[in-house]
Amino acid sequence: MVLKSNFADRLICEIDKKQNPSVVGLDSNFAKIPQFIKDDFEGSYEDKLKSASMAVYEFNKKIIDSIYDIVPCVKLQIAYYEELGGYGLEAYKKTSDYAKSRGMLVIADAKRNDIGTTCKAYSNAFLGETEIFGMKKKIFDVDCLTVNGYLGFEGVEPFINDCQTFSKGIFILVKTSNKGSEEFQCVDTVTPYGKNYMLMGNLVKKWGEPLTGSSGYSSVGAVVGATFPEEAHNLRAAMPTSIFLVPGYGAQGGTADDTLPCFNKDGLGAIVNSSRKIIFAFQGKNDDRNFQTYVRQAALDMKNDLISALKKGKICRWK
Amino acid sequence: MVLKSNFADRLICEIDKKQNPSVVGLDSNFAKIPQFIKDDFEGSYEDKLKSASMAVYEFNKKIIDSIYDIVPCVKLQIAYYEELGGYGLEAYKKTSDYAKSRGMLVIADAKRNDIGTTCKAYSNAFLGETEIFGMKKKIFDVDCLTVNGYLGFEGVEPFINDCQTFSKGIFILVKTSNKGSEEFQCVDTVTPYGKNYMLMGNLVKKWGEPLTGSSGYSSVGAVVGATFPEEAHNLRAAMPTSIFLVPGYGAQGGTADDTLPCFNKDGLGAIVNSSRKIIFAFQGKNDDRNFQTYVRQAALDMKNDLISALKKGKICRWK
Fold this sequence. Notes:
The structure is a homodimer. Chain A is α/β, with parallel strands linked by helices. The first copy, chain A, is 43% helix and 15% strand. The first copy, chain A, contains 13 helices and 10 strands. The first copy, chain A, is globular and about 60 Å long. The two termini of chain A are 38 Å apart. The relative contact order of chain A is 0.14. At the A-B interface, helix 3, helix 4, helix 5, helix 6 and strand 4 of A face helix 3, helix 4, helix 5, helix 6 and strand 4 of B.
């Protein structure tokens, strides 16, 4: 049951294999999936929420089929599944399993946070296993989970323990991509770290040290938005062994150049996420039946855009 | 569809009706429910996770039956349902519906947080509604949700909008009950507010002002632990119109006296939660079949304990 490999090492291996430091976010909002898929599924099940959930799963499978050979990771934003209820979570689980069967790593973007036995229950759901009727069951069994660290180490420790036991990872929110993140995260503290985001970054670094793999990177990473290059630069300097999960590229306005401060000199240390701009790349094309073509092209465009920026910055590790 | 009443006003009305400012937390960890219920449900469904989820729902119904006439609110900690997967979420929804059918208010303790359309999707799931196939569907439809405010107002606004549209409430984490909350929440800032928890408290106050009801209290409240009476005192002074959801009483070591700083002089402004000490009050009694008796007694003991403290503090509003 216990895997010996380290999540950070596995992630870097997959990034190198596909020569692509990007993540595609499956923010698969039912409202925005192609109409023909919705039509195919309408009335398929008695419960309309099940029909909608299975339509989303179908869409996700096609997205994964379009990108699995060129993109190392998918990020599944759970809110779009929770808004479909229990069947939505079933679609979530099926999507995760399907992505893994295609050789992709799965990040659950759920920003969970709690303490003690409650935190452990979340960890059971996403990273570990639940014991019922004398059996151990995997629930979502993703590779990695996003976590909100406002509660301190007690809100992180159960996840970290399961990261060690099950060879998983977490990314803790440090500097989020939204403009209004300044309201709290950029407030100056009296600590030597400076602003709140730097304080959180230093905590994440400390918490993650025991999970450093043979790559030199830790399985406890940080969420750092592409929309604040200066803050990313400060964090990169302060936490060299943490991998950054970088939202904010694409639809939120961050450019490939903006993501550069998130990388280390070795060309590693960041995975850049794009969601809507990839999975809904077919919108406005009036060609829904061929949506996979647009999705793959958008994923390739993103890869090339990032590689160009890395090359320009002289930190690309691939030829 | 749009309700005109204010959540804070409804909550205070229910507290007054039952003369009890307490909340019972349905942290219904499958491992800890009575063995005879597990035995009754083992093998009931092909999927063991469904059997476990329906056993939890059965347990919850009996808990609610034991306390609905004396306790105004239940708090459903979603982690214990997520660790059972999609069926667990079905049990969550059924429990929420059952509690409402018994006249109780339901707080979803999920500490959700995200921005923009993602935050709106969470809000659809818990407070509002999801549109599929041209229909609007309620998903969990609880009365109130806990939220983590680390992302700033953009992580709160979609919830607030739905609070106004659907007559719902939120409680935002300010000072949590765990000892280690000091690590981040008690760090001094350079703002006039002082420590991080005071900064967050003042943000919550500002965000909540437009949702103030005729009671003078806002539907945007704060989570403030009973385990830090001094910090609670500071917050109470800074945010007089916010209702505090108070964890940490009971199993976590907070006493009724410790909760007093969370109340205002009018004897309102706080609802005190206890979870394990109430719902698992039967443990160690060797009398599982009568677990409801112990649960009801524990809920009554808590009510009396709080009322005694309020009377001693000369702020009890009931005779």
